[in-house]
Specification:
The protein is built from one helix and eight strands; from the N terminus they run αββββββββ. It has one helix at residues 2-20, and strands at 41-44, 58-67, 74-81, 88-91, 97-98, 103-111, 121-126, 133-137. The strands form two sheets. Strands 1-2-6-4 form a four-stranded antiparallel beta sheet, with no helix packed on it. A four-stranded antiparallel beta sheet has the order 5-3-7-8, with no helix packed on it.
């Protein structure tokens, strides 16, 4: 009887595994665990350093936003300079829906003020799974 019970248990295990497996043809399948696809954000460089300039002069630097995830499109929700009255301005990316392994750029312009240079932070809000808000020191 032990051998028969072992065969029944093995058969049941195979049937359960087959029912829960993913259907490679994409036909639905039996409720297996689906691979979770997530958008991930990578920003390069992670800090923008502007050169010292005479008052009124401008300099523009760009940064790249890449979707390093494994399936979902990365959606850029907003890009802005935290301090509204800072000497920095941002040009929004042309593309705000970034497929996997694709990228877009953001241009940040600094207009040198009278007196001491100022610092601020560029904020990027997105649909990234692990870092939906990224801050880039300016």
């Amino acid at each position: 009887m032990n051998r028969l019970a072992s065969l029944l248990i093995l058969g049941l295990a195979v049937a359960v595994a087959a029912a829960c497996g993913d259907d490679p043809a994409g036909g639905g399948g039996g409720g297996g665990l689906a691979k979770q696809t997530l958008a991930q954000i990578e920003v390069n460089p992670t800090e923008l350093r502007f050169s010292p300039l005479p008052p009124g002069e401008t300099q523009t630097l760009t940064l790249t936003i890449t979707n390093t995830g494994d399936g979902d499109v990365l959606k850029i929700k907003s890009v802005y300079v935290r301090d509204e009255d800072s000497p920095f301005s941002v040009e929004l990316p042309a593309e705000t829906a970034i497929p996997v392994d694709e990228q877009t750029t953001v241009a940040v312009t600094y207009t040198a003020p009278e007196g001491l240079p100022e610092n601020s932070v560029l904020v990027i809000k997105s649909s990234a799974a692990s870092h939906p808000e990224v801050e880039v020191p300016l």
